[in-house]
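Trying the structure run again after the queue cleared.
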Amino acid sequence: MESAVDEHRAESAVSRQKLSAWLWRPWYAKLWWIAIPIWWLGMAVATRVDVLAAFYGGALAGYLNVLFFPMTALMVLGVGYVRERLDGFVGPGDGMPLSDEEVSDAARRIWEDHDRAVKSSRAGFDMLDPRSGLLWIGNPANPNNPGYIDPHTGKHR
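Done. Tokens:
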């Protein structure tokens, strides 16, 4: 049993690529990572050069700030790595697909459960429903609420 586990670990370690392969190996990743410090150095120089300051103050530069933000590159380039890692968690299914009847029965059951839950929750949040507890007790539209009865006539308002 122990050897099977070790064999599985060895196979998964070999077949799985490192994060650095996703973040640095593609040509566009290298280009992006090199452009990021160039962009931010240009922004630092823009504090002294008026022509660059005019460009870095524009709307296009605002979009490029997001594009050249290191976390943006990390998130975008890391998508493939995360996708590969998550695909490794899901094994091949050996079950049979549901027939059309079974699918419609399951959908009907789910909707019935949903409707039942909504109806029971509606009673707890409707201040005109006596089953809502404190909402009903404190509601001025409640006939038993002292604020609902006119103190001068003793009748409902």
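The chain has a mean pLDDT of 82. Worth checking whether this holds up in the mutant runs.
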